[in-house]
């Protein structure tokens, strides 16, 4: 038994070393920065202070935080609402065609993130495809200001992360025992009640995994807001970016980053707990 | 046969179901009576599960009708049918406790909370599940899960309860106990039970009537005694219980001849001068003093506690015949490997089938 533990430790070593060196150590450095003072021309001075964290709760920055939460939240909700039916449809398809359908769902993912985001600019701008189409259909008013709006940012985020959510929900749905759905129908529940009482609760781990994924990546995202939001409003990711590269206030940027990481870790822990509550009966069996 | 005929609660009328090119159920008709314990028995792939799923509403027949208490339910949605299915996998909701699983079907009927909890408690008591009411399915043993699945279906007070291989997942000891338990429960609740099984012993022990299915058709339908003692054809004869088959022919003198021996037999409608198969159960072959019947040699003895199954090689067939001998009765001592014995056949218990 102990030799097996030793062997499994040995096998995990490269990953642990890699993550330790290139993730944990930088995070600790950033954490340290967050408690130091900014240098006059960028960089840092080694004077301890808690001031950076006090500034995070400043209404100006707190508002940006809330905006980010709202945008990420809406993107998450929208992604789940779009992904769930898609995943369900793939599950209902014949077993042989399912891998192909999944491949198409993930296809956009193989192209470059920036190119995909720029494509949305082409679609949404005042002379873009959507406005031209509207005009072609007889619309004569001012071109719609689709680009550089919260809606454009949310659209971009949903578009980019949708494949993950489809995959996560699909993996939950495809593992669901079809007889449970039949049992529910047999016991007198129609399709709708069966969905809300049986299917949805049992696939919550997939929904939570996909949802947390979108939320965490969206709230820290700075490319999509910069390109599709046009710098008109900021998300937390843009704020951090600006502190490091424009305002030269590394410690404040570090403090913002730390708060963001704390939020993400909190969410991931919640998700882990939720999914073990829904699918972790085995845990209960060990206790009982 | 002498029981008064009650009106059929469930009527299956010339039902056909195809999957692509295979015909799963082939023009099958069946009447099931009120309060009957009915078994659909057959090997896997005989169409018994498809038939059950059509009755439950998960498959729609291509042809034919299904009527429940006189009303046509052929195309009715499963949730609208006043009958319930107990799944082979039990299909208990893993995210609900035993109590919640039981309440689910009543909640769907939009009953009041007090009535639901009263009926749940009553059913927990009937099925002896009170101590487990707060557990989730993963915390239950196989036998306990089976009881929960049964309780969850029974609590709906269905007109007919369908059971798909209900004891298949249990070990032999528990299975035998549950056979009697199921039968007792059926008498107690007075609900018509239709059970699907591939286990002929299970069907004989539990059912009032048995239908033997093969290739989507019913080969024989009757009481366990009828099916066991008077099988309608060679398949039923071989599928139910242990049976010796002897290939031979019926002579002009109406005697069955095989391997130079002649046996008196009820021809059962078969003509003279044709090939036939004689079927006889091991318990219907008698051990006789040497010279009084067909002589043979004991080639093997299998001990079964109360009795012994001995294998006797005779001129009748290439395969040794199985003969059942009581462990303490006459002939018990003779039943030893290598012993020369004589076998006696009784015309009343031998059946002839066309080859």
TrEMBL record, chain A:
Residue spans crossing the bilayer: 12-36, 71-93, 100-124, 144-173, 194-219, 250-270
Chief subcellular location: membrane
ABC transmembrane type-1 domain sequence ranges: 65-271
Keyword Lipid biosynthesis: no
Record bears the keyword Chaperone: no
Mode of membrane association: Multi-pass membrane protein
Cellular compartment(s): Cell membrane
Keywords: Cell membrane, Membrane, Transmembrane, Transmembrane helix, Transport
PANTHER family documented for this protein: INNER MEMBRANE ABC TRANSPORTER PERMEASE PROTEIN YDCU-RELATED, INNER MEMBRANE ABC TRANSPORTER PERMEASE PROTEIN YDCU-RELATED-RELATED
Family of this protein: Belongs to the binding-protein-dependent transport system permease family. CysTW subfamily.
Protein name: Spermidine/putrescine transport system permease protein
Organism: Rhizobium herbae
From TrEMBL, chain B:
Enzyme class per UniProt: translocase
InterPro entries named in the record: AAA+_ATPase (IPR003593), ABC_SmlMolc_Importer (IPR050093), ABC_transporter-like_ATP-bd (IPR003439), ABC_transporter-like_CS (IPR017871), Mo/tungstate-bd_C_term_dom (IPR008995), NA-bd_OB-fold (IPR012340), P-loop_NTPase (IPR027417), PotA-like (IPR005893)
Stored PANTHER family: SPERMIDINE/PUTRESCINE IMPORT ATP-BINDING PROTEIN POTA, SPERMIDINE_PUTRESCINE IMPORT ATP-BINDING PROTEIN POTA
Family the UniProt entry places it in: Belongs to the ABC transporter superfamily. Spermidine/putrescine importer (TC 3.A.1.11.1) family.
Physiological role: Part of the ABC transporter complex PotABCD involved in spermidine/putrescine import. Responsible for energy coupling to the transport system.
Subunit structure: The complex is composed of two ATP-binding proteins (PotA), two transmembrane proteins (PotB and PotC) and a solute-binding protein (PotD).
Protein's name in the database: Spermidine/putrescine import ATP-binding protein PotA
Organism: Rhizobium herbae
Phylogenetic lineage: Bacteria, Pseudomonadati, Pseudomonadota, Alphaproteobacteria, Hyphomicrobiales
Gene name in the database record: potA
């Amino acid at each position: 038994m102990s030799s097996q533990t030793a062997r499994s430790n040995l096998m995990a070593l490269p990953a642990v070393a890699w993550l330790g060196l290139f993730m944990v150590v930088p995070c600790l450095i950033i954490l340290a920065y967050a408690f130091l003072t900014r240098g006059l021309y960028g960089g840092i001075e080694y004077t301890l202070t808690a001031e950076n964290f006090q500034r995070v709760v400043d209404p100006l920055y707190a508002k940006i935080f809330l905006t980010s939460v709202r945008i990420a939240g809406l993107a998450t909700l929208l992604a789940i609402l779009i992904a769930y039916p898609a995943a369900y449809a793939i599950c209902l398809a014949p077993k042989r065609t399912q891998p192909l359908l999944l491949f198409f769902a993930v296809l956009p993912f193989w192209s470059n993130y920036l190119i995909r985001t720029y494509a949305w600019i082409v679609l949404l701008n005042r002379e873009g495809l959507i406005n031209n189409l509207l005009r072609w259909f007889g619309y004569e008013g001012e071109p719609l200001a689709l680009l550089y709006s919260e809606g454009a940012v949310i659209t971009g985020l949903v578009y980019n992360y949708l494949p993950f959510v489809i995959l996560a929900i699909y993996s939950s749905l495809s593992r669901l025992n079809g007889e449970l759905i039949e049992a529910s129908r047999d016991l007198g529940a129609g399709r709708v009640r069966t969905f809300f009482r049986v299917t949805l609760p049992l696939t919550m781990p997939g929904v939570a995994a996909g949802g947390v994924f979108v939320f965490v990546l969206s709230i820290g995202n700075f490319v999509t807001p910069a390109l599709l939001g046009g710098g008109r409003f900021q998300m937390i990711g843009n704020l951090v970016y600006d502190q490091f590269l424009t305002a030269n206030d590394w410690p404040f940027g570090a403090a913002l980053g730390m708060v963001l990481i704390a939020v993400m870790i909190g969410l991931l822990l919640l998700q882990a707990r939720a999914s073990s509550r829904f699918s972790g009966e085995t845990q209960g069996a060990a206790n009982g | 046969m002498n029981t008064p005929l009650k009106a059929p609660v469930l009527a299956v009328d010339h039902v056909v179901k195809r999957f692509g090119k295979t015909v799963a159920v082939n023009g099958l008709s069946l009447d099931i009576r009120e309060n009957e314990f009915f078994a659909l028995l057959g090997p896997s792939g005989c169409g018994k599960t498809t038939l059950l799923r059509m009755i439950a509403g998960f498959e729609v027949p291509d042809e034919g009708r299904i009527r429940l208490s006189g009303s046509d339910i052929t195309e009715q949605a499963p949730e609208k049918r006043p009958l319930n299915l107990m799944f082979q996998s039990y299909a208990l909701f893993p995210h609900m406790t035993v109590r919640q699983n039981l309440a689910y079907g009543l909640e769907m009927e939009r009953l009041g909370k007090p009535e639901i909890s009263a009926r749940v408690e009553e059913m927990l008591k009937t099925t002896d599940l009170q101590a487990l009411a707060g557990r989730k399915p993963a915390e239950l043993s196989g036998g306990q899960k089976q009881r929960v699945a049964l309780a969850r279906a029974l609590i709906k007070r269905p007109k007919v309860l369908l059971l798909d291989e209900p004891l298949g997942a249990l070990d032999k000891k528990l299975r035998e106990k549950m056979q009697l338990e199921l039968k007792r429960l059926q008498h107690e609740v007075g609900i018509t039970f239709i059970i699907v099984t591939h286990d002929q012993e299970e069907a004989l022990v539990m059912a009032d009537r048995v239908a033997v299915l093969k290739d989507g058709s019913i080969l024989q339908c009757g009481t366990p005694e009828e099916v066991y003692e008077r099988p309608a054809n060679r398949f039923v004869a071989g599928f139910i219980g242990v049976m010796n088959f002897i290939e031979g022919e019926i002579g002009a003198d109406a005697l069955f001849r095989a391997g130079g021996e002649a046996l008196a037999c009820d021809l059962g409608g078969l003509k003279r001068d044709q090939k036939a198969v004689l079927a006889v159960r091991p318990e219907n072959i008698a051990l006789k003093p040497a010279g009084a019947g067909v002589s043979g040699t004991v080639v093997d003895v299998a001990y079964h506690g109360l009795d012994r199954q001995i294998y006797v090689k005779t001129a009748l067939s290439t395969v040794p015949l199985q003969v059942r001998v009581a462990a303490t009765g006459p002939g018990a001592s003779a039943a030893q490997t290598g012993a020369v014995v004589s076998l006696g056949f009784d015309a009343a218990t031998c059946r002839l089938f066309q080859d």
